[in-house]
Amino acid sequence: MTEITLYDATRHEHLARAFADLHAACTLENPMTVANFAPPYTAEKLEKMTQWWAGRFADAGPGGSDCIIMAFTEDSRSEKQLSGYVVLHMPFTESGPFRAEVQKLFVSPDFRQQGIARKLMMRLEEVAKANGRTMLVSEHQFSRRK
To answer: How many angstroms separate the CA atoms of 107 and 60, rounded?
Structure first.
């Protein structure tokens, strides 16, 4: 079972490393992915990625420009794991207050082909609409594990 939820600093701030690990897992699978960081993922680079995600979390609070939507899926031991996420970036702009950008849509290779990306995007669309963002743009490359 997959639960889709919005990032909440009081409950999820500790997940920065899990976000970095999932980010790395997805880009290792497809080295052509443009995602801020590239392999090889040393301990130092993973720490830098963790700090980068902690910075993104700061923009995801009330009044921030980002909304992070997360998926948690039960693994084979019935433990909830971060299985995917997507960022809805809603910057201030007078000329396009209806516009938002879809960023960082990642689903763990271990949880693909379960409809998680679709569920994340459905929730993202709901959040965008509730915030008056009716035009969504993305520069994502989509890939599937074969």
So the answer is: 19
